[in-house]
Amino acid sequence: MSKRENGKVMKDLKKKLKKKIIDIAQPREKRIYIRVEPEKTPEVVEYLFSKYKCKFCTASGIDMREGIEIIYHLAREDKNMVINVKTLVPYSKLEIESIGRRIKAFRWIEREINEMFGVIFKGHPDMRRLILPDSFPKGKYPLRKDFKNSDVTDEDYDYERSGI
Amino acid sequence: MKQTIIPLGPYHPLLEEPEHFKLYVEGERVVDLDVEIGYNHRGIEKLAEGKTWDQIPYLVERICGICSTSHPMAYCLAVEDLVGCDVPKRAQLIRVVVCELERLHSHLLWVGLAGHFIGYNTVWMWAWKYRETILEICEKLTGNRNHYAMFKPGGVRRDFNKEQIEYALEHIVDVEKPIRMLTGAILDDPVIHKRLKGIGVLTKKDAIDYSALGPTSRGSGVPWDVRWDEPLDGFKDLKWKVIVQKDGDVFSKSVVRLLECFESVSLIKQALLNLPEGEAIDADIKEVPPGEGCGRYEAPRGEVFHYVRSDGSNMPYRHKVRAPTFNNLPTFKASCKGETIADVALITASIDPCYCCTERVAVVDKNNNEKILREKDLLRLSVDKTKSVMKKLGKTPPLYNMEI
Amino acid sequence: MKLLFYYLVFPGFLFASVIGLLTVWLDRKVSARVQWRYGPPWYQGFADIGKLLYKEVIIPEEAFGSGFIAAPLFGLASVTLAITILCVSFFGISEGFIGDIIVVWYLFAIPAIALIYIGSTSGNPLSSVGVSREIKLLLSYDLPMVIVIVIMASKAGTFSIKGIMEWQMVNGSNISNWYGIIAFVVAIFCVQAKLGRVPFDLAEAETELGSGILLELSGGVLAAYELSKAMMLFGLPMFLIILFWGKGIVGGVLMYLLIIVLLVLIKNTNPRVRIDHAMRFFWGWMSGAAVLAAILAHLGA
Amino acid sequence: MNILKKSFKKSIWVFHLSTAACNNCDIEVLELLTPRYDVERFGIKLVGSPRHADALLVCGAVNAHAKPRFLEVYRQTPKPCLVVAFGSCGCSSGIFRDSYSIVGPVDKVLKEEDPDAKIVYIPGCPPKPEAMIEGIIKGLEVI
Predict the structure, then answer these.
(1) Interface predicted TM-score of the whole assembly (ipTM), two decimals
(2) For B289-318, what is each residue's pLDDT tens digit?
(3) How far is residue B18's CA from residue B38's CA, in Å, rounded to a whole number?
(4) Cβ neighbours of residue C54 under 8 Å, at least 6 residues apart?
(5) What is the number of alpha carbons within 13 Å of residue B81 lying toward its C-beta?
(6) Of A117, A133, B357, C156, which alpha carbon lies 20 to 30 A from C260's?
(7) What domain range is C67 assigned to?
(8) Binding-face residues of B in 112-141 toward C, CB within 8 A
(9) What's the whole-model pTM score?
């Protein structure tokens, strides 16, 4: 993956997504980071996924104190490039357009982010709990920074709801 | 049509992993499928935020017992991507050897289970018997049968001395013969052909749409193999090829896995033979600058993805882990539709889920009498089918390995 | 007094349970050997029964208390009675009575009925599924077996065990001619189903229904059931020996081992069949073969 | 009476239970049945329901989702029974100890239910099959 080819991918992405993205950076040879506003993420990600023939690796949520940053990791196999699309969803308005509505690959990961961070995905087909048990106390989001491991202990789980 | 579904507890005699599938059926045909996971949740990502960079490989190793070296491998690649250091060649080749050994014993475990589902218990006993030799090699090289704790960001924790390499080279050879025999037993058996061909088909478009990974996608003609697409320097000068099959049914997935075993054996031999002499095996990273990095590696079941974000302290700010089965599991919706219940056991086994979930399939009949089919039911249904196929082919059933 | 001795010690409880448990061990050992495994030690059968007696009995609330304990004991008593009647006339200790073949066959059926009683009262949904399967199985394998018994009895002209044995002494045991062989095959499958062994162990399918009908049994109650099953493993082959061989003791022992080997072979070679398969198998194939044997018998082949 | 106790030691019926485990111990349990480490020679048999079981093989640190089900199964087994906590996850919830979803290792969860439950600990991650067999056999003296 010579430098020249890397540059070509960068230029080509800049040209296509010019107006939709805030900025685009390539700190290392095989990684591209694109920063996008929350409203524009579905278009950028769907463009990358369908027309740009990228494979969807996963999406990770990070609690950045002022909001939840969601990063969609997509990989372009033949050009051997990992493209990450970053958006910051502010705490004030914790919701974002769901991509899982059209593309099936995103459904499960959106359910997990919703359960772990509390981000609401508008239009998601079946938004249920994916991993946490039903007896997990409501309103608590484990992967947020303010949640400590010791916050939820044995007593907080009310076991009646666990459907025995 | 009102459907009453009684969720029975996940505990069940022969169960390995508490996992629960619900099939919506019309008569024998499967209409829809619902998956309920979460019995194994241990909050690993939260724990990772409380551990230092060097402690995480131990935690990450225990995510899944069978692919227990792919996770630390992907994690180390992520940290190296963050730091930007390059790992000495000898360390990379040692990593290749350990990962390929694990791929071998994971595929053999799968071959055993697949044989068990078709009803050939001898195949199960054989596959697991020859798997023991590989586990012994692992024990000789790394000290433990499964959780090897060999990797750390920047290189490898322990080196192979001369005597270990001889032992491994000598014993890896006598693994090849049984694998060839197993491949022969599975690939040229007309009954298995009839049983596995044409069922649980995952079309190429579906594979891409669900972003299936590993043998599940390579079985449908999608040539995604992280070892090829993002090769480590270790892989550059080793000769091997990605195995891809076209028609995406259970048979082609099995062919992909079996041929990969041969690739792994040859890879191990090549890597062990040209290990560079006397090099340092660690680029010993002193401290981790703020920034982020992603690491990807090809586990036996597909691509493992780790994302690491650091804010300069000695603990990661965020560590995202995604196991391959997370992407492969939803593909059942596409591959199980329209199949009979008897084949469901095979289809769920064909993606070799990280937790073998064929034990608990609750079949919900459309006219809402709910019948719980346990693993033995599925087994027997699929074995009945094998026997009927055998009669059609005029072959006598193998004498004593059909007993469940 | 002598009868009590017969019942409790010699051909009855003690003798039958010892031989039965040894046969259980033989069966498990051969199956393990088939899979290159080492297999359990010789005293395994006794250890299992001993352990179960040692354990605590849990009676589910829905179940009717004393009935839950009485049923398997009742089953055990009936099996011992059947075996005593069989062996008493086999070893020539005393005359049997007319019609004791039929009595013995239906005494063997009582443990199954006791099991059905337990399964249905225990209120566990899974064991109720087991109960329905057991009843269907009971009906399906009775028909061909009764036909076989009638053939043998009509050939010998009497319904008493003594009579059948003497007839075979005089003009050759039944197994030696055509209708005997067909009837023997039918009888072997019926015995396999009665004992609830693998191809037909639908009622207590180990992982299918979580050992279905036996789900609520535990401790002493389970010991009684296991013991009655072990003794049936001894009693039923004896029953077949009388029907098909009838000659002296030495021939009987050889025949016994042959039947046991056949039972183990069937167990190891086929997977468990579904309940509708089993019923179709018994009512279709087995009854047909039994009728064929009957025709052949009357043609004097 | 001690004949029955002795016979208890010779025939153990085992029921396998997995609570939040990394399925490595579960596979090692299955390996015990394969030809190399065949456990049937000690009379150990895998059974289908907790009612028949004498020993409960528990792998994995108990997580909140699995705890009620685990206690339910323990209540169903007839009492002179042995609980075998497998691997370091079973003995001390291993590396997942202070996670929010783990509610304590096997013995902490079990002590709530029945304080004098007999528990055998088999350390190791995953414990060697030889260690497992020895653990179960040694557990018999406890009963």
Answers:
(1) 0.72
(2) 888 888 888 888 888 888 888 888 888 888
(3) 9
(4) D4, D5, D7, D8, D80
(5) 27
(6) C156
(7) 2-299
(8) 119, 121-122, 125
(9) 0.77
